[in-house]
Specification:
Chalcone isomerase; alpha+beta; single chain; 23% strand; 6 helices
Amino acid sequence: MSQAAPAGTFNNCLRAAVLWLFAVCILMHNSYAADTTTPAHIQKELSPAYLSGQGSFRWFGLKIYDARLWVGEQGYNSAAPETSKFALDLRYARSLQGRKIAEASRDEIQKLGLGNAQQLTEWQNRMEQIFPDVSEGTHLTGVYLPNAGARFYLDGKAIGEIMDAAFAQAFFAIWLAPKTTAPQLRNALLAGAAAR
């Protein structure tokens, strides 16, 4: 007749498994943070592209995504942001519906006092047509096209454009405007955005 393992053994095994999982998560996060290889679609857009900065966005303590700002040789001109082409890459940490991403983007633009009611509705509709549902590890990249609009990529593949300069300025202001609701993330993204 076999004996049951002591409770202490089970607890030790459980503790070891949790620590191992935690270590794997830390290593995965650090490998992403340490990897500064320019994705091909961003290199093609900016050529050459430089990593300006990176950070994470959290909502009530839950990480939603990691963000990276890529700039070209001219860097990012905060005095005249509409003049610089750049790419913002978001790597999602959880599953979200594309419709919810579009709604949240509209809400953030509205908080910044940008766009009128008609523009906000139109921009949300356009974003809902382009933004897909995402899961952990999905990359959504937005490329700012100076005085023209924005181009979007899903995991490096083009998924659509919104050729409206006012939209593009308002959309990227979510992260880069001085009045953003995430000032620490803005500072991290712009840490190395000066001209090269």
